[in-house]
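Summary for the steering committee. One of the milestones for this cycle was to obtain a three-dimensional model of the protein with flavin-adenine dinucleotide bound, which we needed before selecting residues for the alanine scan. The sequence and ligand used are listed below.
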Amino acid sequence: MDPIKIELVVIGAGPGGYAAAFYAADLGKKVLLVEQDKRLGGVCLNRGCIPSKALLHAAKVMVEAKESAHRGITFGEPQLDLQKLRAWKDSILTKLSQGVAGLAQRRGVQVLQGRAVFEDSGTLRVETEKGQQFVQFEKAIIAVGSRPAIPKAFDLGNPRIMTSTEALEVEEVPETLLIVGGGYIGMELGTVYAALGSKIVVIEALDTILAGADADLVRPVAKYAEGAFKEVRLKTKVLKMATVGKQIKVVSENAAGEQKEELYDRVLVSVGRAPNCADIGLENTKAAKDDKGFIKVNAQQQTSDPNIYAIGDVAGGFLLAHKASKEARTAVEAICGESSKSDPAIIPAVVFTDPEVAWAGLTEAEAKAKGIKVEVVKFPWAASGRALTFDRTDGMTKLILEPETDRILGVGIVGHGAGELIAEGTLAIELGANAKDLATTVHPHPTLSETLMEAAELFYGHSTHAYVRKKAEPK
Ligand code: FAD
């Protein structure tokens, strides 16, 4: 096979890689997109964001149906057809990945299926089904993502010990499911399996689930989990696992050093993710890794090798799809000589548990840790008419403000649909808006978006539906 000569090669077709390839093609570059999987879309589309949210939607339908009796509506016990549930979920993934492939074709982005390895700073070797294909490139963007990290002690080769990838296949609904790690992936998948009927135990080494979110935002999720899960055990570590017949024996130890031995039908290990750059020939380039194994980049996503950029999960930071897509734009603009903005972007985070948790910008905990003086205002959803209409007053919207200017530095929301609401907060922070801007913007009624406006109004002491204190508004 003759080598392919190309202006830009993008390795990995996840939300970082395909966004980069498409944007570069839109800006006139000749682009080759290399992906080892048969389906485009990366982890997000095939084994992450999309399948998990499809299953969470199914879970929500089941829970809401069950909880409708007090509204005078009762349904029978749900009949679960796992094969149909899987087929429905997979149909969404197929539709989306075909959509990505179609968009690549329409933009003239060449797609090559195979595993890419760097030979040097200008050459890739791609192992395809037909043999080796060499690619000579001017610039490369590495977007090879990450994979579930599974500690050696838990890697017994037993399919009953799952990562998120296997858990999303929903092969069966185990009677008992242990989730090791109370981060967002563990808590979201716990929400799914609890609704399907599993008895869930979460074991988390830290003193909180959903570390990174402010404690007051996490509280309603912890409360919900108290009812929906069998147990959430904090400050506890799983030490060992072993196969015992059709079950997994798990030994854990709490902060007091007390050990417990239990049997579970399945275990989900969700303790973090590892970058996929151990075997891509990085050592044949000048690109360097940090001490956690992620590729080091500058503000333009350029690695220590001037021809090579890295984006998304493999470049570390928040391992989120929209962060990958944002970095794709930054890298492409740098490659096309269009780069100007190097301020770090505001990356919102959303946890799709019940209730959802979302935050953007500065958190209260971060402000405290860094000694940044802030004012905090919280609007409880018990004062929201809209929240009452669907019986979910367990939410709260809070603003983190700069005291001198009332500028919005951070927004945190917990409650039904928080993931949709956080975009307004992100925009407010990006635009440098202050509380007055939010308070004077007319929000449609009855919607949960009013809680952002009312939080700002509350800050000035004149929220219509809540009362706290007066503060002089900026002129
Ligand atoms: P990836 O999506 O990981 O894509 C990398 C691609 O590179 C893969 O297709 C891989 O096959 C390919 N590749 C790897 N090595 C090579 C090679 N050598 N040659 C060729 N191709 C290669 N994020 C959110 O923002 N919101 C969510 O709700 C959310 N939910 C999630 C739920 C779960 C269960 C999981 C696991 C993740 C979730 N994420 C979510 C995280 C999100 O999926 C990732 O942050 C995102 O996919 C990262 O995008 P990426 O482009 O960096 O890499």
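Key point for the committee: Residues 11-17, 34-37, 42-44, 48-49, 52, 115-116, 143-146, 164, 185, 276, 280, 312-314, 319-322, 324, 352 surround flavin-adenine dinucleotide (CB under 6 Å).
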